[in-house]
Amino acid sequence: HLSSMRTPTAMIVGLVLCPCGLLLTLTGTLAPSWRQVSLIPNQPVDLILEQGLWDICSERQSSHDRHCSQADELGYFEELPVRVAQGLMPASLVLTSLGLVVAALGVRCWQKEPQHLLAGIAGLVLLLSGLLSLAPASWYTHELWALPASAGSTLVVGYSLVLSYLGSCLEILGGLALALSFHHCCKER
């Protein structure tokens, strides 16, 4: 009968949220805008510095003249929250990819029954990967105003940091949804 062919809703939720989370986290990790520095003393008033995990870009708002690979004169990349994020964000991306492969094997729609144990394990892996990217994003946010910048300049959260947060949260929610598959394993025993 058909009801046994249906993929559980929690699995579908997990398989929708986690790839979205991966995409957001990937963009957040690669795009150079975890923090924006503006109104820098002795610089043009429309100059904005965008600092990411790997690059610093400067842009003139009036001309949209953008230059990346700016010199890190203040030792921004040496700061611990930045270095930790440089390690944990890629680790999280690898773990998310691994979790999605395991999830795809566990949820497999081409077999009669999903493999609940595998889907549950994938859920835990994805939950962990979400926490792995949430930790550096949170720490960076906490230290955002303490990280080196020219005295008197204005500091704001950049879009990459926001995307990293959202991606982490989607991975955590998707991972939790897939981890609900363990419930079926217990019921079957």
Automatic annotation (TrEMBL):
Superkingdom of source: Eukaryota
Broad class of where this protein is predominantly found: other
Record membrane topology: Multi-pass membrane protein
GO CC, one annotated term: plasma membrane
Keyword annotations of the record: Cell junction, Cell membrane, Membrane, Tight junction, Transmembrane, Transmembrane helix
Localisation: Cell junction, Tight junction; Cell membrane
Gene Ontology molecular-function annotations: structural molecule activity
InterPro entries reported for this sequence: Claudin (IPR006187), Claudin_CS (IPR017974), PMP22/EMP/MP20/Claudin (IPR004031)
Keyword match Cytoplasm: no
Stored Pfam families: PMP22_Claudin
Transmembrane feature ranges: 12-34, 84-105, 117-139, 159-182
PROSITE patterns: CLAUDIN (PS01346)
Function of the protein: Claudins function as major constituents of the tight junction complexes that regulate the permeability of epithelia.
Similarity remark: Belongs to the claudin family.
Protein name: Claudin
Species of provenance: Anhinga anhinga
Gene that specifies this protein: Cldn23
